[in-house]
Amino acid sequence: MSALRTLSVLCAVAAFAVSGTLTASAVVAEPAPTDVAGQAGPDYIAPDRVITAAEAVEMKKRIAASAAAPQWRWVGNFNDPVALANFANTPPVAGAGGIMVEVLDNGLMPTWMYF
Q: What is the distance between the alpha carbons of residues 73 and 87, in angstroms, rounded to a whole number?
């Protein structure tokens, strides 16, 4: 199942990249959620920051352990489809249709995941 998911993510990314039908879209950046001291929370990822698969996996596990019900979550920008596929297949694995990726002209892949 994970090999199939990896293949489908890579095929989708390749199809969008080859077709050239996607254009860069503006990501509306909301201000970072802050605590009383004005510090950004540990799960905040700036919209213009590229994250690694290891960072995303650690955040995913921490959020999944604390969450009661699944919901769509911003998991960051990836710049490598292999890292994105590795992240998507790391437990807790999202079900079918549980990941949304947009491929931008600048090579970034903003990603949301349902978990």
A: 14
Q: Is the dihedral of CA 9, 78, 61, 99 positive or negative?
A: negative
C-beta separation of 86 from 58 below 8 A: no
- Domain-wise residue ranges, the chain: 2-24+41-114
Q: pLDDT, tens digit, for every residue of 22-75?
A: 333 333 445 555 555 566 666 677 778 888 888 888 888 887 777 667 788 888
Paired tokens of 82:
């292999």
- 26, 94, 109, 27: which is closest to 63 by C-alpha? 94
Note whether 75 and 112 are within 8 A (CB): yes
